[in-house]
Amino acid sequence: MKTQDFWAGLPLGPGVRLLARDENGLAALDKPAGVLSHPNRAGEEPRSLLVAPYRLDGEVYEWEGPEGPLRLWLLNRLDSATSGVILVASGPELAREVKEQFRKRQMSKAYAAAVFGAPVRPEEAWRDRLEIVKRGGIVRSAPGGAVAAECLMKLVRRGNGLPRISLLRLEPGTGRSHQLRVQCAKRGLPIVGDQTYGDFRANRAFAKQAGTKRLFLHSLESSLDYAFRGRTYAFSARSALPAEFEAAVGPGGQTR
């Protein structure tokens, strides 16, 4: 199958868009909030990144194309409630190489988060220790464990409305489960709409006022340099900030 036909024929999930791709088959998709990175059980395919069967052991989607079986490898995950950039690869060799860059922390990511309150300083390096617990397929994180979590926080806008909501740019240096949600909550800056680590009373009041219950965490940008077949390539992708983030923060002082 021709490369263009492969990407044009992806069985994309609801609202999922192709953001960027390169000559090697590395690509970025834009995932809406509420869409699964991959199905976890039978019947979840219609609300996943691709409407296709998924092999957990190979971290790969598989479906039948006009000329035979086709595959797309998932390179990273986002919680279903988180929107934005997610990376995929069209071949297993490329998938292995890019995942190796992830393990070496040679990938840069940036997230946008709308939080209740406002940080004391406009920029701060957050360093924490987390405890990550998995029970019955459910992952939960909490401060105070042995796992290092690092993030650079930058204040983008401090809203003036009630409740006060601020827009943050978060650049994680580590990729721990629920890391950004826990780190924000620990500092009294719970992410709007976070039903696990957030301010439940504030979430209810905001949802009633704004008419949305989504988690206000969005994967804005991903970029990396990677080696493949003797050459080095640069790849980057950006997803636009959803309109509801601007509406939630409202007017305020632009700091960056």
Regions with little confidence, pLDDT below 50 for 5+ residues: none
Q: What characterizes the major β-sheet? A: 14 strands, mixed
| Mean pLDDT value | 92
Overall strand count: 14
The CATH architecture classification of the largest domain is 2-Layer Sandwich
* Anisotropy-based shape: globular
CATH class of the largest domain: Alpha Beta
Our count of domains comes out at 2
What is the chain-wise order of helices and strands?
A: HEEEEEEHEEEEEHHEEHE
Note down, in words, how this protein is organized.
A hairpin with a 2-residue loop joins strand 4 (60-65) and strand 5 (68-74). The protein is globular, with a radius of gyration of 19 Å. The chain has two domains: 3-104, 2-Layer Sandwich (Alpha-Beta Plaits); 109-217, 2-Layer Sandwich (Pseudouridine synthase), CATH 3.30.2350.10. The N and C termini lie far apart (45 Å). It is of the alpha+beta class and 256 residues long. The protein is built from five helices and 14 strands. Strands 1, 2, 3, 4, 5, 6, 7, 8, 9, 10, 11, 12, 13 and 14 form a 14-stranded mixed β-sheet that branches.
How do you describe this structure in short?
This protein has 256 residues and is α+β, with helices and mostly antiparallel strands. The chain folds into 2 domains: 3-104, Alpha-Beta Plaits; 109-217, Pseudouridine synthase, CATH 3.30.2350.
